[in-house]
Amino acid sequence: MDIFEIDGPVRLSGTIDVAGSKNATLPIMAGALLAAGKTVIENAPNLADIASFQTIMHSLGVPTSRDENGGLVIDATTVERPVGEYDLVRKMRASICILGPLLTRCGQVKVSMPGGCAIGDRPVDIHLRGLKELGAQIHLENGYIVASAPPGGLRGKQIFLGGPFGSTVLGTDNVMMAACLAKGTTVIESAACEPEVSDLANFLNQMGAKITGIGSPRLVIEGVKELRPIRYKVIGDRIEAGTFMVAAGITGGNLHIRNCNINDMVAVADRLNNMGVDIEPAIDGCVVSREGPILPADITTQPYPGFPTDLQAQFMAMLALARGNSVITEKIYPDRFLHVAELNRMGANLRKEGPSVFIPGVDRLIAAPIMASDLRASAALVLAGMAAYGTTVINRVYHIDRGYEKIEEKLNLVGARIRRKNTTSKAD
What we know:
Elements lengths: L1 E7 L4 E5 L4 H10 L6 E5 L5 H12 L4 E3 L5 E4 L7 E2 L1 H4 L9 H8 L1 E5 L12 H9 L3 E5 L2 E5 L9 E3 L1 E2 L2 E2 L1 H12 L4 E5 L5 H12 L3 E3 L5 E5 L8 E3 L4 H13 L3 E5 L7 H9 L3 E5 L2 E5 L8 E3 L11 H8 L5 E5 L9 H7 L5 E3 L2 E5 L8 E3 L3 H13 L2 E6 L2 H4 L5 H6 L5 E5 L6
Parallel strand pairs: 2-17, 3-16, 6-7, 10-13, 20-21, 24-25
Antiparallel strand pairs: 1-25, 1-26, 3-5, 4-5, 7-9, 8-9, 11-12, 13-15, 14-15, 17-19, 18-19, 21-23, 22-23
């Protein structure tokens, strides 16, 4: 099992490229199931999660490959077996996205309840409620979701998808994809507005779907008879971009971050500005730098366009070094704080109380052996390691490979000192 050894502190400087969005690519891969033929997804990142989803597609009888330009080719000419097996689906939350497209294309589907990172309870009841509104018959059987469309197929309806923690991204994706081939008009109220949802909607429209209201909490989908396979380029990964923005801030560096849309990151840029980080828009992204001290801030995670939960851990690492007291409140996944104990091992002074963490800043972080618990926590520990004094050892970095393509290589090119090593230590 791999570990990272990180020497710090360092100051990052140079140009760094953001990969294609993982959170956009995975639902778009599922959306390719709606069209018989070969769909090509350009800018799809080479990640463990993408590879896992390819394995799921293969189990459905849908071959995938990479073309000569690195595009991800999905051949959904036929779907031989609309079943998402437990051993495959349990590894990744986004695997639930096959539910909607397989239901509407095949008329029936059986999918295991999904897994993913240990960041708290994430039920799929809103997904199922939305599909039931379209006419699906759904029941649970031995840990599997078993769904079937009524005779004549799914039918459009006005559907409310709000939940206790706001709108649901993957639930919106599932219902939107199912509605594309349903009869009549579907209206999704309280739809998720994340850029990744908009990217999926744009992808579906290019395939021949009729979706309006993209980017708003009210989506209108006119059902069509069929969709066609296409070539489509996914957006840059705003969470990776945000991670690199924090990397520039926590190290007092200067990074030109390319292939990101700063207009999708207004809440992130606002908090960084308040923390003493300068952000200048560029044609292909932005330039991020910090010269003065890290200033304290209050952050509350919210559905888009609010502050993203997927950057909460990274900002916590930076605020641990702020001059003053900060507070982070998690409104999306209130249990997403496994990184708190690991940052405290490095000398941070974090105190969790319910859904909030109180952060009196410290003068420095000190290297320590630490453990990655989930994808974004892993990124936060890498950031902390680059700012800490000494050599930090991060165990279980396979988590970070799920969402960041060769992150150590990218960061090393701009001044980091990160070594990936294989170890059979019992600590792993």
